[in-house]
Structure of Expansin-b3:
Amino acid sequence: METHCPNFSFTSFYSVVSGVVFFWAVIASAGPLRRVEDTHWYPATATWYGSPEGDGSTGGACGYGNMVDVRPFRARVGAVSPILFKNGEGCGACYKVKCLDRSVCSRRAATVIITDECPGGYCSGGRVHFDLSGAAFGHMAVSGYGGSLRDRGVISVIYRRTPCKYPGKNIAFHVNEGSTPYWLSLLVEFEDGDGDVGSMHIREAKSNIWLEMTHIWGANWCIIGGPLQGPFSVKLTTLSTGKALSARDVIPGNWSPKATYTSRLNFF
């Protein structure tokens, strides 16, 4: 079966202003397990975009769409430079970002989820840069000084990787618009731990063969062939630590485009 997906042209909605139960699933490891959390802080720069107290942009280069406007994403979104975006494979990763100016910055770090890419300006030239929602940016300030911090424009920050946590949420798979029995595209949502995806496979009904999916853009993966017959089991392996998780028959036989199907498991 052909598993290569055609090239996908996508233009990010992004502007800089001032910038997937015991009998249902198997959890296994693929290679040595490591913790995604990093105790070391690294230097970077940061700006903010959107409304001063806003949640950031709608949509973005990861393809999460309106999810960025509601919890748990709300006010925690961030765009990153290409070095962290990793051609979309960095989507869903979580970071702590802390500013350094003691005159207006608190010791609090903002925890952000990567939902978008910032390709130019401060994000160019191989630099590590975060373009945060206004709310996430202001969260780093001393109480009452959010406006003063935002007025600084670009600031020096330190950052480190941190596990993603979605309390009460299990990994879900959104079937992208345009999917058919011959071209199936999935978006991964609410992945605890690493947050990122290094590979995805699906298994058709009454089959023992895992079919490899292709990363097309952002947090979106696809497979062509067919006709593909559900229900589908989905296996994903994280990019950062190689942890794997399989959700049995998570997408029903009568699946439909634009529908989201929630598994019964997560990494935490």
User: Anything to note?
Assistant: The CA atoms of residues 104 and 149 lie 6 Å apart. Residues 7-33 have pLDDT under 50 and may be disordered. The longest helix spans residues 134-139.
